[in-house]
């Protein structure tokens, strides 16, 4: 530890203000209650206060800020989706990400790396071309590249995959980036708090009260609250919340596991993804390899990680990067992915007046953090869906108007 940092930490004269103050008692009434204190919930609170002047807002988090899926992902940001609706939505998020450090006055370590999605089969390469054409039509920098270009940009990768599923090409997405997930959640939370929003950690929602066909309050393990609007932004806990108000969704919950290695000197300047091998990897600013795989094969509401995951992921990683065989794996974890049948989120108004959803994020929730908060805040302020999230409305499943985003998932599901 540097002497300067130690001196700063022990000095009373450089007492840095706390990010958040001690918890206050709950007020009897709020205009808006946000269930979920992850990145999405904090972003929604931030934009409600900053852009719409709505500050009588309570964020209720059963654990701690960013302790759910926000702290359990692999921090990749991209917008190379398959449908025009998805591309438009996630590209807005990328542009918001690029300015967040200045917006927060807090370094979120946003680092543009470039993103390779490898194709190992003819059908995968055909999907890459499809995505590239959609992306270019929407003004997004994506293109199909051949093995020679991949070899020049990622020279340490075995393109023959040890004889298993050789790489035939890739979709290269130049704006692909990574960022510190905790910094994003904390930046939004501090910005919201400084504008008057109340953040209540360790506060579990036990029920949602209605009057007729309208929301009128929330029950918590710290007491009752009356409110005008409630938005659920709880990712893998979505079914537990929607059951409280009798709303059915087609969401299923699957564990999604990830891990990091010990830190090593920087060598990986890009993000590499293989949907066929079910692996994605980038190198963090601290030198760790941050790696993930596909979701677990069975529905399970659990954040328990498994040896089967590390064994399978290591096998695929060694096919691509045989020289990492001596790296030690330091940590592994799991999040709960709420996946919809068309692999697109569910956002906006619901049949219950005053109750809104932000769910169905599967494996792509972190990259949507800014745009989900911004568009949900607009939707709450105007009581109608923002144009960017209208295609993701819950009623699309009843209307047979699905979005069809499975082809843009980074890994198989």
UniProtKB/TrEMBL annotation:
<keyword id="KW-0560">Oxidoreductase</keyword>
<dbReference type="InterPro" id="IPR006076">
    <property type="entry name" value="FAD-dep_OxRdtase"/>
</dbReference>
<dbReference type="InterPro" id="IPR036188">
    <property type="entry name" value="FAD/NAD-bd_sf"/>
</dbReference>
<dbReference type="Pfam" id="PF01266">
    <property type="entry name" value="DAO"/>
</dbReference>
<dbReference type="GO" id="GO:0005737">
    <property type="term" value="C:cytoplasm"/>
</dbReference>
<feature type="domain" description="Rhodanese">
    <location>
        <begin position="32"/>
        <end position="76"/>
    </location>
</feature>
<protein>
    <submittedName>
        <fullName>FAD-dependent oxidoreductase</fullName>
    </submittedName>
</protein>
<dbReference type="GO" id="GO:0016491">
    <property type="term" value="F:oxidoreductase activity"/>
</dbReference>
<dbReference type="InterPro" id="IPR001763">
    <property type="entry name" value="Rhodanese-like_dom"/>
</dbReference>
């Amino acid at each position: 530890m540097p002497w300067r940092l130690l001196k700063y930490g022990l000095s009373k004269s450089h007492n840095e203000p706390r990010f958040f103050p001690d918890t206050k008692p709950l007020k009897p009434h709020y205009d808006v209650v946000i269930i979920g204190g992850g990145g999405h919930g904090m972003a929604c609170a931030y934009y409600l206060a900053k852009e719409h002047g709505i500050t009588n807002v309570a964020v209720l988090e059963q654990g701690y800020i960013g302790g759910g899926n926000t702290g359990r992902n692999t921090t990749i940001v991209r917008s190379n989706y398959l449908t025009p609706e998805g591309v438009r939505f996630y590209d807005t998020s990328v542009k918001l990400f690029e300015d967040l450090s200045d917006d927060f006055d807090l370094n979120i370590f946003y680092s543009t790396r470039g993103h390779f999605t490898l194709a190992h089969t003819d059908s995968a390469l055909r999907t890459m071309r499809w995505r590239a054409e959609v992306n270019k039509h929407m003004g997004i920098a994506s293109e199909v590249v051949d093995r020679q270009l991949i070899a020049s940009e990622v020279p340490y990768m075995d393109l023959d995959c040890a004889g298993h599923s050789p790489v035939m090409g890739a979709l290269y997405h130049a704006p692909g980036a990574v960022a510190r997930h905790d910094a994003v959640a904390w930046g939004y939370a501090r910005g919201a708090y400084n504008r008057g929003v109340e953040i209540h950690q360790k506060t579990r929602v036990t029920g949602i009260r209605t009057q007729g066909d309208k929301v009128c309050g929330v029950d918590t393990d710290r007491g009752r609250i009356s409110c005008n609007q409630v938005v659920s932004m709880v990712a893998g806990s979505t079914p537990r919340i929607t059951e409280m108000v009798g709303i059915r969704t087609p969401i299923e919950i699957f564990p999604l596991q990830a891990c990091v290695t010990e830190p090593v000197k920087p060598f990986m300047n890009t993000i590499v993804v293989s949907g066929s091998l079910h692996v994605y990897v980038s190198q963090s600013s601290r030198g760790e390899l941050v790696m993930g795989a596909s979701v677990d094969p069975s529905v399970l509401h659990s954040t328990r990680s498994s040896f089967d995951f590390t064994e399978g992921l290591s096998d695929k990683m060694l096919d691509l990067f045989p020289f990492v065989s001596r790296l030690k794996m330091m940590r592994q974890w799991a999040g709960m992915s709420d996946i919809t049948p068309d692999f697109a989120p569910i956002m906006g108004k619901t049949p219950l007046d005053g109750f809104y959803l932000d769910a169905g994020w599967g494996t792509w929730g972190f990259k949507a953090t800014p745009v989900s908060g911004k568009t949900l805040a607009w939707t709450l302020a105007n009581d109608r869906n923002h144009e960017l999230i209208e295609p993701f409305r819950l009623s699309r499943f009843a209307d047979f108007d699905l979005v069809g985003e499975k082809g843009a998932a980074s890994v198989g599901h």
